[in-house]
Design goal:
By secondary structure, the chain is α/β, with parallel strands linked by helices. 27% of the residues lie in helices and 27% in strands. Helix 2 packs parallel to helix 3.
Amino acid sequence: MARNQKDYYYDLAQKEGYRSRASYKLKQIQEHSNIINRGDTIVDLGAAPGGWLQVAKEISGGRILGVDLQKIDEIPRVTTLRGDMTADSTIEKILEFAGKGGVDVVLCDAAPNLTGNWALDHARGIELNRAAFECAKKILKPKGTFVVKVFQGDMFKDFFDDVKGEFVHVRAYSPQASRSTSAEIYVIAKKFLTAPIRKGQEYAVEITETGASGDGIAYIDNFIVFVREAFVGDIVRIKIKDVKPNFAFAEVSEKLEALPSNPRYDNPIQKRSQIPMSADFEKEAHPPLKARRDNYKPADSEDEKDSEE
């Protein structure tokens, strides 16, 4: 379906005064995952023409900033910034806007210019997703939320796993307002981690305390790690199994005679986390990826925001 073809959500957007049918995707994401709280400070990357900004303002009522290379027409009580999300100058302006309170939610419904070549469009989309991801990591406050539109394809899982390494809860979701033939899906990531460690890393540590449940306790850069079946005085190599905002859980991989000369950086042995695909990805993404690939066509419309929507 061409993106300028009128459909239910297009008509509804026209009737209710939204700038894009994509507004209903954010409404449905909010209903499904409760990503925005009242009073949240929100940054929308690739925000033109402003449909998500309108909805974000309605839900939050807080400070809202839209960033795009294109000019965004004025929206009452919403701040806009014309700039490149990858530029340090843009990051500085976003942080200045957010102030000491920081950014609660980063949204990105942006899409690259589509060519009709599946592999090329997917690669360009992932490149844009990673740019938004890197920006989000620089501006989000601890425990913040990141939502980004991704085109499914061969590189999706690596990107999904990388996001999962930086947040406590990550899932993939396809709102009903997405067209049935669209390859898009939304990655919803909650509780941004600012801990110095990540799931899957390995460290050499000494157990210095015992927790209330009997687990051993080690410290990595003053960050608490609970280690199963370890005791005070043990020197062990551990693998991080789960990371929370204020502590982590680990299991013993090997008992050691002594700590390495540089236990933090000589060892960790960092590997890509082999996280299984979210069950929500298979359950909620529709239709199957092959059908989307077979039906893939570049969209053409006056509205860049509705690209492949």
